[in-house]
Amino acid sequence: MQSVMIVVLGIAGMTFGWFVYSKFIAEKIYQLDANFVTPAHELNDGVDYHPTNKYVLWGHHFTSVAGAAPIVGPAIAVYWGWVPAVLWVTIGTIFFAGVHDFGALWASARHKGKSIGALSEEVVGSRTRALFMVVIFLVLLMVNAVFGVVIAGAFVQTSTAVFPAWSAIVVALIIGQLLHRNWSLGLLSVVGVAALYGSIIVGSNLPIALPESMFGLSPNANWIIILFIYAAIASMLPVWVLLQPRDYINGMQLIVGLILLYGAVLLSMPDISAPAFNNQMAEDAPSLVPLLFVTIACGAVSGFHGIVASGTTSKQIDKETDARFVGYLGAVGEGTLALITLVAVSSAALAATPEIWHEIYDKYGTAGAGTFIQGGAQMISNGWGLPFGMAQTLLATMVVLFAGTTMDSGVRLQRYIIQEWGEIYSIPIFKRGVFATLIAVTCCLLLAFGAGGASGSGGLIIWPLFGSTNQILAGLTLLVISVMLIKLGRPARFTMVPMIFVLITSSWAALIKLKEFYEAGNWLLVTIDLIVVITTFMVILEAASVISKEKKKVHESTK
Questions:
Q1: What is the pLDDT of residue 185?
Q2: What mean pLDDT comes out for the span 292-301?
Q3: DSSP of 367-388, one letter per residue?
Q4: What pLDDT shows up at residue 451?
Q5: How far, rounded to the nearest angstrom, does the alpha carbon of residue 307 sit from its chain's CA centroid?
Q6: Cβ 473 vs Cβ 139: under 8 Å
Q7: Does residue 410 contact residue 147 with C-beta atoms inside 8 Å?
Q8: pLDDT at 511
Q9: Which residues, at least 6 apart from 547, have a Cβ–Cβ distance to it below 8 Å?
Q10: Domain boundaries, the chain
Q11: How many separate helices (H) and strands (E) can be counted in the chain?
């Protein structure tokens, strides 16, 4: 019964966020203008800049920012107890993620679709831009390299998810062509989701596995190479061909998945086995503060969202007023996924008793996406009567598709960053899409295989830095938005309060990790962590100087 209360209270909070708080932010702070000419219209090239129906764009944005992170983070963070995790997901979604994602989309659309790093030059200064883009590139490198490893691992461990995962690409290609020919979005949504779930039924009875050795590499390594070849091709296609329809259909699939999961809670009303606050933690367990706030990133607030919002999404927004629906509601959608993940890994569906739950969560970091799939599948099976194996395939496919769409967008975003460097530093070859994509994919594969050997798991080596680096990026994005608001003479406290909180907790976490890496003698991570911390400090100083000057101007003008 406790699970129902968690769901009701969490959804009630997010409903308030959408209907009340986001409307206030849209009208009074960002002051959206329906007549503003967006970059999608002004710079329409049919490839990256393309006016898009807000429902289709919401699907792209939502599934691009979601990935596996709002599942993995909450599944790990419940180790400290379900109360702090639920509070952070709910409060973070309403007052942090929604304002951050919405704001990054609005700010970028107001600056010709520039990435948050590139537009920081206009808002703060040229030195800030250079520093900012280093952090962004590192975050994208981590996300792309690791998600390639995660998807490959899922294909090896759950071979029944391979067929539906690749079938989704075929479905998206067909829908993209039909949407471009103005077919009914409603009809295509129904047909697309039906085809996707049909492939899941087929896939549950049709496992596909690569040979144990192919080209001298393991199945895991071969899947990583295949995935990056696909991502490179997908990132260069016009957005309407694959990116938009794939993300939209995956978004619809997630809505069905969320209905099944939330419906299972209402139908079976599972008890909560996890403690409200865990008092049986291992001696070497990290402290709740500040690590909770970087363990749950996506689902509460995430810097990667700002990259997507100011990267692909801002180039496709039809009307500026759509930014609230796409940006804020996208964050709410991810919050609901994080919330149901917490229920799935906290309830009796995963562990029948508190004792069994403590056996599963004996150490910090032992749980993850697999724990969610296990608990969620059992919850669906109990509530709806679906066979456990089919429910397991359904959720495994959902995780893979989310990670895949994030990887698609991530490689495209890396291309944007490299092309922006080409513009900024006058390097003609960097401006070329094919060459920029080749650099992006090569960097990811070098990390995967150069640091990880033949297994291709090298991305996991720098993953411990993702939590703090990603949240530092969220804080810096909120900082740029705040400076922009101050320059416009609008209230900035609604972005500055979340900014201060996120920068303090994430920088604190980065320093804790720095000490751990130093003591372990891991000099690669020490170097990268130092770069991120020093860069952050310098950006804050630059922004503080600009804020001081702007306030001085306001003060002098009122004399």
A1: 85
A2: 93
A3: -SHHHHHHHHHHHHHHHH---H
A4: 66
A5: 9
A6: yes
A7: yes
A8: 94
A9: 482, 483, 486
A10: 2-272+290-557
A11: 25, 0
The Cα 398–Cα 242 span in angstroms is: 18
First-to-last alpha carbon distance for the chain, in angstroms, is 61
* Cα gap 367→356, rounded to integer Å: 13
Amino acid of residue 215: F
Exposure string of 227-245, with b = 16+ CB inside 10 Å and e = fewer, is bbebbbebbbeebbbbbbb
For 487, other C-beta atoms within 10 Å of its C-beta total: 18
Angstrom distance (rounded) from CA 165 to CA 183: 24
User: Which two tokens mark 523?
Assistant: 């000099």
pLDDT digit string (tens) for 388-414?
988 988 888 888 887 788 888 889 889
Measured at the CA of 356, the angle between CA 351 and CA 362, to 5 degrees, comes to 115
Taking 3-state DSSP, the helix, strand and coil percentages for the chain, each rounded to the nearest 5, stand at 75, 0, 20
Q: What is the tens place of the pLDDT at every residue in 481-540?
A: 999 999 999 999 999 999 999 999 999 999 999 998 899 888 888 988 898 899 889 888
The predicted model gives 253-266 an average pLDDT of 91
Distance of CA 340 to CAs 87, 288, 515, Å?
13, 21, 34
User: Mean pLDDT for the chain?
Assistant: 89
Q: How far apart are alpha carbons 540 and 506 in whole angstroms?
A: 14
Per-residue pLDDT tens over the stretch 28-39: 999 999 999 999
Across the strands, what pairs with 52? 317
Residue found under tokens 């997630």: 254
Report the distance separating Cα 401 and Cα 253, nearest Å: 10
- Per-residue confidence (pLDDT) for residue 157, from 0 to 100: 82
* Rg of the chain, C-alpha, whole Å: 22
H helices present in 299-365, as ranges: 303-311, 322-323, 329-346, 354-360
CA angle 182-183-186, nearest 5°?
120
What's the angle, vertex CA 107, arms to CA 484 and CA 73, rounded to 5?
A: 105
CATH code linked to domain 2-272+290-557:
1.20.1740
Kindly state the percentage of the chain with pLDDT values over 90: 51
